[in-house]
Amino acid sequence: MTEAEEIFAKEPIPEAVREKMEECRRRGQEVPDEKLIKRPGHIAGIRKACAINTALLDEISRQIHDGMTTQEIDDLVVDFTHAHGAICAPYHFEGYPKSVCISINEEVCHGIPSRHRRLHDGDIVNVDVSTIYNGYYADASRMFMIGEVSEARRRLVEETKKCLEIGIQAAQPWATVGDIGAAIGRYAHSRGYSVVRELGGHGVGLAFHEDPFVAHIGKAHTGMVLVPGMVFTIEPMINAGKAAVVLDPYNEWTVSTRDGKDSAQWEHTILITEDGNESLTY
Ligand code: MF3
Ligand code: CO
């Protein structure tokens, strides 16, 4: 048995939570599988992975600069992660070739580091890092503004962060996944932005991508019920122009806006608690 399996066996779901899940099921709601309810032992492990992931993003924020290549950021991510006894989750994940995703301006996500790609004054850059420590996973991303950024870009970056915060506020115990997307979608549209539909947040902790899929657009009171102990990401991708995206036909990873307008993204790993939620990353 792995450590995580032992914890499932030794640390049951609290009786009150189990009863409430049953009640939701009887009402016809979609209820998570018990394997999606993390136990205190799992959460302790995920916290450690998240602490390293946060320290890594802090280190990137100290070092990122105009003229840096995205490969230099990848090198930094690998060195820092390994120095902390951890593993970069993206490396060779479903064939992904590098250890971090770096998405610039019109790139929505999954930008692949390259020694030929430099950051320039005025760029807005998402750096998405995911760390495995002792078998537990963390996932978070931040935006960085390089040098003097236009007012429109700064606004997109700040409003996208607000979208994440609004999504987190909606992620309350016994609410639903649809409540998160509904809140984010409403806010983004009120600001004149569009929301990427093809990609979303996801369960995380014992694997990189677990259920549920967390859409950043949607209908309130629909989808899976949020149960204390669930750990998942919220990571809205918000576009200045239209919502449509295209996949890079050469590398088959990098997603960009179809209209070439800017996109931004922020991501946290959050834990649903009995009385709210907690961001495990920062
Ligand atoms: N870090 C991304 C996420 O937020 C996933 C990247 S998959 C990879 O879910 F293979 F590109 F790393
Ligand atoms: Co993620």
Q: Could you describe the 3D structure shown?
A:
With 282 residues, the chain is of the alpha+beta class. The protein has a single domain (35-276), classed as Creatinase/methionine aminopeptidase superfamily (Creatine Amidinohydrolase), CATH 3.90.230.10. The protein is 33% helix and 23% strand. The strands form 5 sheets. Strands 1, 2, 4 and 5 form a 4-stranded antiparallel beta sheet that branches. A hairpin with a 2-residue loop joins strand 4 (124-133) and strand 5 (136-145). Helix 3 (40-63) crosses helix 4 and helix 5 (151-170) runs antiparallel to helix 6 (177-190). The protein binds 2-amino-4-trifluoromethylsulfanyl-butyric acid and cobalt (II) ion.
Chain-averaged pLDDT: 98
What is CATH's topology name?
A: Creatine Amidinohydrolase
Main pleated sheet: 4 strands, antiparallel
What is the CATH homologous superfamily assignment?
Answer: Creatinase/methionine aminopeptidase superfamily
Could you name the ranges where pLDDT drops below 50 across 5 or more consecutive residues?
A: none
Please tally the β strands and state the result.
15
Termini separation = 32 Å
Shape: globular
Ligands present? 2-amino-4-trifluoromethylsulfanyl-butyric acid, cobalt (II) ion
Task: Give keywords.
282 residues; alpha+beta; Creatine Amidinohydrolase; 4-stranded antiparallel β-sheet; 3-stranded antiparallel β-sheet; 6 helices; 15 strands; globular; binds 2-amino-4-trifluoromethylsulfanyl-butyric acid; binds cobalt (II) ion
